[in-house]
Design brief:
Elements: E1 4-10, E2 13-22, E3 25-28, H1 30-33, E4 39-41, E5 44-47, E6 50-52, H2 59-62, E7 69-70, H3 71-77, E8 89-91, E9 97-99
Antiparallel strand pairs: 1-2, 2-3, 3-7, 4-5, 5-6, 8-9
């Protein structure tokens, strides 16, 4: 599997990292994970004082033996939505679908929010 430059938007951080994409997973080396403010610690995956314990039964899903962390699995474990693709399609407020590929070469602003 080859690492490739990937832009990741995770919580309130946007970072360009070297990542390995595999099916629904996105693997980051510990040094790349730090660009997002996260670190693999004995307590689990931590961001500042917040630590997410890694259940022993799910460790292989979240952390590889080489220390790489599956960022997509971490988001799913925390109940967060995960979207990834080279191109994705979303509806506007009128229900019409738009793809990023339709806007290739143009500046695009993606605005997202949550009601919780």
């Amino acid at each position: 599997m080859r690492r490739m430059a990937t832009t990741v938007i995770f919580e309130d951080v946007v970072a360009s990292v070297a990542a390995e994409a595999q099916d629904e997973d996105l693997w980051l080396a510990p040094s790349e994970l730090q660009h997002l403010g996260w670190a693999l610690e004995p307590e689990g995956l931590c961001r500042g004082p917040l630590c997410v314990p890694i259940p022993p039964a799910r460790r292989a899903e979240l952390v590889r033996t080489d220390g790489a962390v599956n960022l997509a699995a971490l988001a799913r474990h925390r109940g967060q939505a995960v979207v990834h693709d080279e191109d994705f399609t979303l509806p506007d407020l009128d229900g019409r679908f738009h793809s990023l590929s339709q806007l290739r070469g143009r500046k695009v602003l993606l605005n997202s929010w949550a009601s919780w």
